[in-house]
């Protein structure tokens, strides 16, 4: 009746419910027959109730016993029920047979309920998947043709009509539309997309007609990867769950030993009669079983993960959901994280020997090889000019890029980096650069051999939600929020001030970011890092919780981070943290409640205040309650 055997299919849920119903009906008629004094009929009907209601638990219990050599709660229940029935037959106390059957009935009902609850979590995740259509309208020699998704090839062009669901990830080659990406980002506000931009399977096209070129196989669609990650998350038990599972195994053995002692000793020590003794030992088996404890964690975490997935927050496992609730310090990257990363060249200056066009075209010759946001801005700005690609181009993450053009060494990057190659940056240009940096712009320098050619100022936009997010994080009690960036101190300061961050660490190389996370961990223990780029990957991996701006799908981010913000919206950090805290508090409530009810039921049983059916109701009731309490995390807030 318990997790994880109960990640059941829909049909099995139905079978379980049906079995419980039939068991209930048989029990009722058996009880009736007993009252009329039809003993034979009563025993027949009640036996049928035992078999039908208890079959599933017996099967699971025996499988666990044989396969894993472990005792589980299912088996304890069956033993208790059969024990009660035997006692009843032996002492001719037939109401005990009814007690055992009630035990089986309640056990079957709660098993079915839990199965249903877990199924609901599963379905909530699966509903993501059902959003993608399974055919696409492919353009083939000017003709439209409906083809199944798995027959599409990279390079095919497909047509999307207004109002249609997009069947697979692709790049827009013609058309313009607004797209509702709620299925993958949870964000219901449509986003505008046009030629050159990527659209995702499962999202909904607005009023425009679009032509897409397929640039990757359907199996690697973003939504497929999301589903896969969520499924992996479901399978990996967090440490707290493993602890409980281990505890449960030892505990079950203790219960059996104590149960046996309780069935033997009391007549000698406490002068109980044998019937009372055995009856109470059986009740003990039932109430002491740790069902509620086992159901305390996983349903809650799975619900939390499912809830996150629906809002564009991808938790790779339950442990990260728990950790996110404990974060005490956060380090946030600047470019692409606090800012949109949709950067634009705002100024270009050249030294006396060169022109602005020289500077832009030479920079573009190298940047055309890079994926960095700065690179995209430079190439964009040079798109109307004539230039050639450089050769031997090499990107140095966090610093810049080097390469050859017309047999000259070209260097492009931040001041410190370019200064490694040139003797001195001209004072006039430096003054200008500093003034731009105070405006929050990023300045990159360009050099040919040992000679400075000029500098390019790049403007980035602070994400509109950044300031409010930082404020919320502080309200939530995050003790330390720092900005870490590879960009220079002045630019970093300006941006930090604008969003309300006081601690700034600038001019960091990827390994410096990693070390900074380490030192934060020494002080604050649970540290989150939010980033977007390759240069953030080591720090993301080191942080207790690495959070990546999904940028709707950057691979490095998806792989390294523990949590991916598919929506690329900074405020989702706050939602993730609230979700983490709620999960934590629900789990704490559950564990406290489960332990308390087990102890109370054991005490009541020992003092002789409960009978078997009441014991079962208390036991199963508490299990169902903790499961339902966990399911509260499915609700959006
Ligand atoms: P952040 O940490 O803010 O995300 P990066 O670590 O990616 O920034 O880059 C740090 C700095 O290194 C940039 O501000 C820029 O000056 C320089 N830089 C890195 N890559 C490039 C590039 N491809 N072209 C020019 N400059 C670069
Ligand atoms: Mg970055």
TrEMBL record:
Places the protein is found: Cell membrane
Any one GO molecular-function label of the UniProt entry: ATP hydrolysis activity
Annotated InterPro entries: ATPase_P-typ_cyto_dom_N, ATPase_P-typ_P_site, ATPase_P-typ_TM_dom_sf, ATPase_P-typ_transduc_dom_A_sf, ATPase_P-type_domA, Cation_Transport_ATPase, HAD-like_sf, HAD_sf
Residues forming coiled coils: none
SUPFAM superfamilies on file: Calcium ATPase, transduction domain A (SSF81653), Calcium ATPase, transmembrane domain M (SSF81665), HAD-like (SSF56784)
TM region(s), chain numbering: 15-32, 38-58, 70-90, 96-117, 251-272, 278-302
Membrane topology: Multi-pass membrane protein
Highest taxon in the source lineage: Bacteria
UniProt keyword DNA damage, yes or no: no
Any GO CC annotation of this UniProt entry: plasma membrane
Keywords: ATP-binding, Cell membrane, Ion transport, Magnesium, Membrane, Metal-binding, Nucleotide-binding, Translocase, Transmembrane, Transmembrane helix, Transport
P-type ATPase A domain mapped to chain residues: 130-231
Family note: Belongs to the cation transport ATPase (P-type) (TC 3.A.3) family. Type IB subfamily.
NCBIfam families given in the database record: ATPase-IB_hvy (TIGR01525), ATPase_P-type (TIGR01494)
Protein name as catalogued: Cadmium-transporting ATPase
Biological source species: Anabaenopsis circularis NIES-21
Species classification: Bacteria, Bacillati, Cyanobacteriota, Cyanophyceae, Nostocales
């Amino acid at each position: 009746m318990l997790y994880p055997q109960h990640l059941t299919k829909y049909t099995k849920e139905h079978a379980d419910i049906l079995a419980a119903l039939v068991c209930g009906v048989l029990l009722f008629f058996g009880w009736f027959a007993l009252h009329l004094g039809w003993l034979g009929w009563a025993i027949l009907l009640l036996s049928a109730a035992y078999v039908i209601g208890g079959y599933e638990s017996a099967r699971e219990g025996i499988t666990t016993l044989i396969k894993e050599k472990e005792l589980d709660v299912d088996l304890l229940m069956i033993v208790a029920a059969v024990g009660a029935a035997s006692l009843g037959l032996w002492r001719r106390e037939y109401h005990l047979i009814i007690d055992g059957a009630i035990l089986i009935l309640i056990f079957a009902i709660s098993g079915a309920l839990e199965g249903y609850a877990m199924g609901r979590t599963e379905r909530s995740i699966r509903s993501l998947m059902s959003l993608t259509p399974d055919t696409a309208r492919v353009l083939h020699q000017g003709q439209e043709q409906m083809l199944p998704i798995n027959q599409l090839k990279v390079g095919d062009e497909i047509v999307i009509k207004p109002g249609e669901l997009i069947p697979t990830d692709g790049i827009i080659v013609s058309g313009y539309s607004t797209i509702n990406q709620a299925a993958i980002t949870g964000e219901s506000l449509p986003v505008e997309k046009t030629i050159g931009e990527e659209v995702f399977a499962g999202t909904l096209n607005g009023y425009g007609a679009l032509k897409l070129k397929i640039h990757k196989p359907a199996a690697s669609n973003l939504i497929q990867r999301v589903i896969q990650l969520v499924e992996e998350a479901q399978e990996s038990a967090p440490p707290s769950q493993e602890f409980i599972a281990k505890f449960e195994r030892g505990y079950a053995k203790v219960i059996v030993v104590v149960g046996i002692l309780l069935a033997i000793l009391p007549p000698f020590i406490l002068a109980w009669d044998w019937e009372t003794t055995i009856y109470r030992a059986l009740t003990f088996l039932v109430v002491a079983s740790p069902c509620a404890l086992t159901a305390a964690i996983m349903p809650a975490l799975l619900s939390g993960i499912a809830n996150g997935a629906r809002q564009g927050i991808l938790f790779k496992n339950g442990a990260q959901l728990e950790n996110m609730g404990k974060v005490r310090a956060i380090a946030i990257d600047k470019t692409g994280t606090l800012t949109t990363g949709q950067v634009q060249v705002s100024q270009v200056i050249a030294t006396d020997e060169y022109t602005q066009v020289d500077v832009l075209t030479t920079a573009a010759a190298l940047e055309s090889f890079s994926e960095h946001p700065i690179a995209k801005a430079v190439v964009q700005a040079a798109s109307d000019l004539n230039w050639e690609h450089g050769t031997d181009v090499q990107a140095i993450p966090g610093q810049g890029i080097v390469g050859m053009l017309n047999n000259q060494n070209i260097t492009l990057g931040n001041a410190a980096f370019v200064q490694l190659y040139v003797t001195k940056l001209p004072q006039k240009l430096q003054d200008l650069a500093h003034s731009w940096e105070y405006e929050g712009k990023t300045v990159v320098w360009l050099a040919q051999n040992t000679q400075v050619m000029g500098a390019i100022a790049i403007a980035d936009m602070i994400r509109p939600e950044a300031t409010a997010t930082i404020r919320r994080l502080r309200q939530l009690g995050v003790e330390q929020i720092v900005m870490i960036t590879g960009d220079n101190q002045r630019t970093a300061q300006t941006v930090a001030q604008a969003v309300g961050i006081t601690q700034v660490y600038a001019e960091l190389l990827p390994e410096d970011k990693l070390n900074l996370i380490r030192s934060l961990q020494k002080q604050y223990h649970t540290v989150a890092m939010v980033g977007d780029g390759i240069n953030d990957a080591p720090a993301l991996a080191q942080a207790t919780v690495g959070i990546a701006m999904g940028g709707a799908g950057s691979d490095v981010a998806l792989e390294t981070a523990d949590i991916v913000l598919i929506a690329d919206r900074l405020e989702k950090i706050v939602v993730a943290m609230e979700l983490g805290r709620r999960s934590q508090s629900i789990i704490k409530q559950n564990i406290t409640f489960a332990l308390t009810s087990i102890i109370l039921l054991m005490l009541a049983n020992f003092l002789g205040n409960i009978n078997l059916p009441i014991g079962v109701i208390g036991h199963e009731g508490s299990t169902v309650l903790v499961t339902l309490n966990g399911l509260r995390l499915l609700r959006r807030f």
